[in-house]
Amino acid sequence: MHTDQFGLAGDDYTPDPETDSTAIVDGFFDHIAAARPDLPADLVAEMRSQLKELEAANADRIVDEPARYNLRMTLALVVAYRALRSRLGRDEAIALVRAAFVEPLGDLVRESTLAMLDTAEDPFAAMVAVSKVREEQAFGAGFTFARPADDEHRYHVDIVRCFYHEVLVAHSAPELTPVMCEFDANWIGAIDPPAHRFRFDRATTIGLGGSHCPFYFERT
Questions:
Q1: pLDDT band at residue 6 using 50, 70 and 90 as cut-offs
Q2: Which domain holds residue 74?
Q3: Which residues contact residue 96 at a Cβ distance below 8 angstroms, ignoring those fewer than 6 apart?
Q4: Residue 192 falls inside a structural domain
Q5: Is 5 within the bounds of a domain?
Q6: What is the pTM for the complete model shown?
Q7: CA atoms within 13 A of residue 215's CA, in its CB half-sphere
Q8: Residue 160 in domain
Q9: pLDDT category, 8, cuts 50, 70, 90?
């Protein structure tokens, strides 16, 4: 039986961007320290300090409360990448940043998504409801969404403006945008089309060179 650690099930689900982003950022830095004990002992502490400074310098990007926490997560990647790239090289630094961001909460996200879908009377409707709430309360005004289809059988939402990508481009690190995209694989992997009676498709993302990020849910 799967456990819903994030409270996704039910009609009263409300994202908690502050708690979620804190868990992601703490897990991110802890993973780096554990994965590379050969790095200087105070390096992660320096990253945390630099993150606070960079957040303050980018305060003008906080257009609403979700942006505050999305900014923190994105800039955590920036400070870590800067510190690691000079020591490990570009490719190894990206690989470590990716693992540190995607893996620590991966199992919890998959388990929570599975618990929601497995217990929902209508998994498609449950997933669409969570998506809509998160678009508003977890992503917010830093993102722009278009919805070419929204009915009983399809929910197609295109992200045409990505806050993560804009921040990373501004800090000369667009190559990190796919790391943010890959975090979604944690919940995407929980969808079982035969069991849950809907499928999900994301053919590309802005981070992979697409003009937008298509998040398409369709009943099977």
A1: confident
A2: 17-219
A3: 32, 35, 36, 80, 84, 88
A4: yes
A5: no
A6: 0.95
A7: 19
A8: yes
A9: confident
